[in-house]
Amino acid sequence: MGVLEIINVLFMIFFFVIAYISVRYFINQIEKYPRVTHEEVYDSKKLRKKYNLEEGKANPLDYGYNYKDVAYKSGKLNLYGWLIESKNANKTMIICHGRGVNRLCSLQYLQLLKDANLDKDYNIFIPDFRNSGASDEARTKLGYNFAQDILHTMEMLKDKYGMNNFTLYGFSQGAMGAAIVSKLHVDSLRKKGLKVDKLILDSPISNVKKRIKQDAKKRKVPKFIVSIITRIFNFRVGNHLEKLRLSYLLKRVPTLILQTKNDKATTYGMLMEEYNKIAQNSNVQLKVFEKGAHIRIYAEPEYKEEYTKIVADFLRS
Fold first, then answer.
1. What is the mean pLDDT of the chain?
2. Of these four, 22, 225, 275, 286, which has the most CB atoms within 10 Å of its CB?
3. Whole-prediction pTM value?
4. d(CA 269, CA 263)
């Protein structure tokens, strides 16, 4: 073999090694992120502010609610959550946190339900999904695996507590997970006698494939690498990647979408591309706010009352 052939072979090996490392790195960026524990939030003023968690508040009791600590399984994973039971309620709300946070981020919405006089109408379950809080570390796949956790949460609540009518209140990746459950797991829901009555989606990932491509563009990932990544990720989500978008997943279940134009993580423009395809469907409502950050609309003082009223009116409708 001549020198030129050796150089070409070495170059090809180098090229494939770099491509492999790039694909592996970006897939990990999509599916994995550091788990944030409760202790990290309690000990950090920055995280408390991010979670809109007031000083001295750490669990539902600090908001005036008795609760149970619940441990359960999602497949082989250990999940944990807080259950607030309401004596006369025949509906249950699961508050589904997003990526990179945990159930402490959901506590603030107990105040919303109390202010709206809805807390007696619902049992409330606040979980740590996989890779969050006290639950086991695992890949989340931009909400696809959160959907499995939501389904197993519903199954557990029916088996242990007789609850079968659910409102899913999801944020960002948790909102995508909630939408996936309502559509892609509908057969499992029917077999188990479970009903998704309503969806509330705050700052949702609206199109997983476009979100992956958007992130890749920001990182200046070459197009051929992006093509490989989307093919691999599609395989890893059961060849459902084209279905992981709100225009496909919604329509059947009454849904309220809450979005701010300032959202840098799940952008207003991407959401509107999806919403415009289903805007004529009376089951889907959209409320857009001018200001506020990703999953922090309710945390904006000037929107708190309006946000509460919109959610309350939807739940009572």
1. 94
2. 275
3. 0.94
4. 10
